[in-house]
Design brief:
It is a single chain. By secondary structure, the chain is mainly alpha-helical. It has one domain: Winged helix-like DNA-binding domain superfamily/Winged helix DNA-binding domain (Arc Repressor Mutant, subunit A), CATH 1.10.10. About 65% of the residues lie in helices and about 5% in strands. The chain has 9 helices and 3 strands. Strands 1-3-2 form a 3-stranded antiparallel sheet. The C terminus is likely disordered.
């Protein structure tokens, strides 16, 4: 084993992460968690701050700051949560439009990176990626972080390797009070 595959994979991961981050920053005008928050809330409206912090990989206080910024810029509003103690974060029309730009810019960056692949190569890469993604998914919270910018419409949970792996790990070791598990239960 020469390590070449691992090196190439690392280089690809960095290049794609940079390309996606740049595209999302261009779409929102912000670096960091704003794009992920917009994409997540567009696909799972009404999440509480505690639920939103899981895919963002942020502390509760850092997530509050992201939500404060979304609200201040007119992208989201706070509404009473399901238990009337929590706050539900819901995108405004402006936020929904920004989320669509985030998901579209991500899709375009990835499509460009894969544009030179032939159909057979795309099929082989899809199978390999499904296998690797399932293997690296450690639990529900990790799954939510991995898929924080995913377009859930093109990768439904019944076929998503990350979601299926998270369901397997959750079934093996249920976590009580885990916000990620609560998120999965809402799906």
């Amino acid at each position: 084993m020469s390590g070449r595959l691992e090196n190439l994979m690392g280089a690809l991961a960095v290049a794609l992460a940079d390309s996606i981050a740049s595209a999302v920053e261009t779409a929102t005008g912000h670096a960091g968690a704003m794009g992920a928050a917009l994409a997540t809330l567009a696909q799972e409206p009404g999440m509480s701050i505690e639920q939103l912090r899981v895919p963002l990989g942020r502390t509760q206080s850092a997530t509050v700051r992201v939500v404060d910024q979304l609200v201040a810029e007119g992208y989201a509003e706070r509404r009473p949560g399901r238990d009337h103690r929590s706050v539900a974060v819901v995108l405004t029309c402006k936020g929904t439009e920004a989320a669509a730009r985030v998901l579209g810019s991500r899709r375009e960056a990835l499509a460009e990176a894969l544009s030179m692949l032939q159909p057979g190569e795309r099929k082989a890469l899809t199978a390999a990626l499904e296998k690797v993604l399932a293997a690296i998914t450690t639990d529900r919270a990790h799954a939510d972080q991995i898929c924080r910018l995913c377009d859930l419409a093109v990768c439904p949970e019944k076929t998503c390797p990350v979601e299926l792996a998270a369901q397997t790990t959750t079934a093996a070791a249920p976590a009580h009070g885990d916000p990620g598990a609560e998120r999965a239960a809402r799906r």
